[in-house]
Each structure stands twice: as C-alpha cells, then as structure tokens.
Write a structure and sequence with these properties.
Uridine Diphospho-n-acetylenolpyruvylglucosamine Reductase, domain 3, Alpha-Beta Plaits, 5-stranded antiparallel beta sheet, 15 helices, 21% strand
C-alpha cells in the first residue's frame, strides 16, 4: 500500500505541471527554516503553484492523501510557523506574485499573496497613495504572510494592524475549496466577514492567495526626529504630548532602549552618532506631512516645547530623506541581529504602557541569571504597547528564557503582539487566551481542516 506521501505525490503529478513540484533536497535549503534559524528541517517536497487554481489542486491532493502541509511566504517570520516539521511538504507562495490592479479613485489595490510588501508600497506610491503597513523586512516579507500573521509594524499608532488595511481576500481551504471574497467596498455587511477567519490565523484555517488592500493618500513629506530622553516617565510624557500636538499626523513613535541602540551602532559599524553622549532612551518620531512648510513649523515647535519642559534631553531633526533613513537604520536593523547571533532569540510581546517598567525590570533580573550582563536588548512600537526583546541564548535552552519572559507577562499582556504564535509560543497560548477562547479556536480548526493537514501544530 502506498504511503500518504507517495499518494500525495501521485495526486500532485496528476493535477499540476511537473515544474511546480520539487523534491525537498533539490529545492534547496531556503525552505528549511524561517528567519529564526531554529530547528531547520528539509520538507519532503516543495510545491510552487502559480495560480489560485493550482493552490487548490495542491491542497486537494494533499487532503486526499492525509499529507500535512506547511505554508511558506517570505520566510521572515519569527515564531517558527513556516519552518517544516518532519514529514511535511512545503507550499511556497513565492510564485503568486504581482499587483493585479490599482483603483486610485476607490483607493484600493488587488495583489497576489506572494507579492513583497515593498513592491506593494511602490505600486501605491506610483498613484500618489500609500499602503500604510510598514515593517523592517519590507523587501522580503510577502503580503500573504503579513495578513496571515496580522502584521503590525511602524505605523500601527496611526493606521492599525494589517487587519485594518484589508477589504477582501481570496483563500483556499484545506480540502481545496476556494473561498473568494475579493470585496473592494468599504461598507459591506452582507453576512459574516469571512476574511477575518484567515487574517491572523497563520495559515491554519486556509491559505490566502489574493487580497484587496485599503490605500491612503501618500503624505507629501515625512518629517523625522530623533529624541534623547532621560527617564521612562519623561518618555511617556513625550508620547502623550506628541499625540496631543501632532494628532492624526503622528505616523510613528518608535523607542530604543540604550542597550539596543548601542548594540545596533556597534553591529552596523555606524560611526556618526546624533548625540555626543549616551541616553537611557531614544524615540523616533515621524510626522506624515500634508503641508510640509506648516507641518514642519508645527513639528519644530512641538520638539522645542519638549526640550523647554524638560521632557526631552536632546533632539535631532532630519533635514533630508537621507538623514531620515540614517536615523531609522538602527531601528530597522533588528531583524539582522537574529541572523548574526550564533543562537539568537526574539520576543514580541504587548502590554499596557504603564506596566512596562516593572515587566522589563523583572525580566532583566531573570535574564541576567541565565545569560549574564547585557542579556536582552529592548526596543518597541511604544505607542501601541508593543515591545521586542532580542538576545543571544548561547547554550541556554529557549524554554528557560521563555519561562522568564512569558511568566512575567502572564495575566498582564500578550505573548504575541504581531509575529503570531507559530510553534515557538504554542505552549504559552494559555497565558494570553482563556480556555473558552482556545476551545472556539479548536472548533474552527476542526470545522475547516478536519484532517489536520494545514500547518499542523501551529498555534494549537
């Protein structure tokens, strides 16, 4: 009797062109792991469909043979969700790439799931619009992965998570059923909003193949300031003041703790520093200007008031796009650290801003016991309550540090702010979700994927 894999391969051979399926070995090491580089595993095969119909055919074949599938996009995830497990085949969406259409009047764009985020951003700008989702991995991450994990990024404080930037999706269920809800209307209350089943579900309920994205007017300019701050209390005052003074034009409020910033400067070999001395905190504040002259004056007045009132200790205002990129470079480099560490680890959590100092203090004590001094580097999208912690594990087991981080977070916040649960946080889902919530998640999984072939072992 043929094995499930042999049966699946026979079905795939009968339903897909020959070049769409490669053996795991011939496909290359790219498909063995996501950005975490943790527990790499060669998939038994890699499927590379080029249309929604081919995705459906691939899943139908795997469903019929009870063959488990791991879905892969840009492989920039940090939760292990796209890393294959033994016996799985990989379904790569990288060939489902391209912008199908842009509606400048309706301010929408229809794209394939494998389209890199940066390509989407550039296509919007060509029509004087912007797709407001923005993360450091924009050149590699794909829209399908962004939606499947409900990505956040640098502009959540103004535009919200990925979920807020999508009007419709097309997805394929585990059995090959195509559910197409490519809605382009802002208002559509005709029954259940099915796209929400797939956004943030990390490919466990269906595979997103296309999406209709919501666009916004592109700002005429971006004004960036780098602010040095001496205390967390002062940091909060600057955040509150920026919301009040800058209003809806406040696009980003990113914070780097001193340890993170100094490590970034050293790692990136950056010799130019904005300030002559070191400070405990650094805030990147960005304004999306509609009237560059007026908005620049307003921004400068706000920064001067922060200095006069003792909330900020020093300020540098970028005078060009090149200077702005230079100020952003250490913040955007966070993803590079993981690949440079011998055994790197990255945590993505959210909690009330008022609870952050105690959480960080508690975590620092526990982390130093395991990792020594300068144990974890901290940065985050402070305006939306999201912190990231990165570090070098060395020979420490990840589970030991998990207990420190997630133990301090239990009952306070979420173990995943924007990277998803994947496999690495699955054992801590209970720290952020009640039993009844998890029961409903299991109910949805059983209903849409009864044979448990689609991203098995992720989230649940």
């Amino acid at each position: 009797m043929a094995s499930g894999f042999d049966d699946a391969m026979a079905r795939l051979s009968a339903s897909l062109p020959a070049d769409r399926v490669q053996s795991g070995e011939s496909a290359g090491a790219r498909y063995h792991c996501d950005w975490t580089r943790r527990s790499p595993c060669m998939p038994r095969a890699v499927i590379k469909p080029r249309t929604t119909a081919e995705v459906a055919a691939a899943l139908r074949a795997c469903h019929g043979a009870f063959q488990p599938v791991v879905v892969q996009g840009g492989l920039t995830g940090l939760s292990g969700g796209a890393t294959p497990k033994v016996g799985e085949v990989a379904l790569s969406l990288e060939a489902l790439s391209g912008v199908e259409s842009v509606d400048p009047v309706g301010a929408t764009m229809q794209v394939w799931a494998g389209t890199p985020l940066a390509v989407v951003q550039e296509a919007a700008l060509a029509h004087e619009l912007q797709f407001s989702l923005d993360i450091g991995g924009r050149g590699s991450c794909t829209i399908g992965g962004n939606l499947a994990t409900n990505a956040g990024g640098n502009r959540v404080i103004r535009y919200g998570m990925a979920r807020e930037l999508v009007l419709g999706v097309e997805a394929v269920l585990a059995d090959g059923t195509i559910v197409s809800q490519l809605n382009s209307m802002l208002k559509n209350n005709a029954g259940y909003d099915l796209k929400q089943l797939f956004i943030g579900s990390e490919g466990t309920l269906g595979v997103i193949t296309r999406a209709v994205l919501k666009l916004h007017p592109a700002p005429r300019d971006r004004l960036t300031a780098f602010v040095a701050i001496d205390s967390f209390d002062a940091l909060i005052k600057v955040l509150k003041a920026s919301r009040s003074a800058l209003g809806a034009q406040l696009g980003s409020f990113e914070v780097m703790w001193s340890g993170y910033y100094e490590f970034a400067i050293e790692t990136l070999a950056l010799t130019t520093r904005p300030f002559q001395k070191q400070y405990p905190y650094y805030a990147l504040i960005e304004v999306e200007a509609t009237d560059p002259t007026r908005d620049a004056e307003c921004f400068e007045l706000f920064l001067a008031q922060c200095l006069d009132q003792g909330q900020a200790s020093d300020v540098v205002l970028a005078r060009s796009a090149a200077e702005s990129l230079s100020l952003w470079r250490p913040r955007d480099a966070a993803g590079e650290f993981i690949s440079r560490y011998r055994n790197g680890v990255s945590y993505d959590v959210s909690l009330p801003i008022a609870a952050m100092p105690r959480f960080i203090e508690q975590v620092a004590v526990g982390a130093r016991v395991l990792l020594g001094e300068e144990a974890l580097l901290v940065f985050g999208h402070l305006g939306d309550g999201n912190l990231h912690l990165v570090g070098e594990l060395g020979d420490v087991e990840p589970a030991q540090l998990d207990r420190v981080i997630y133990g301090a977070l239990t009952g306070v916040g979420s173990v995943s702010a924007e990277h998803g649960i994947g496999t690495l946080k699955r054992g801590w889902l209970h720290a952020s979700r009640s039993e009844s919530e998890i029961d409903v998640m299991r109910l949805l999984k059983r209903a849409l994927d009864p044979r448990k072939i689609l991203n098995p072992g992720r989230i649940l």
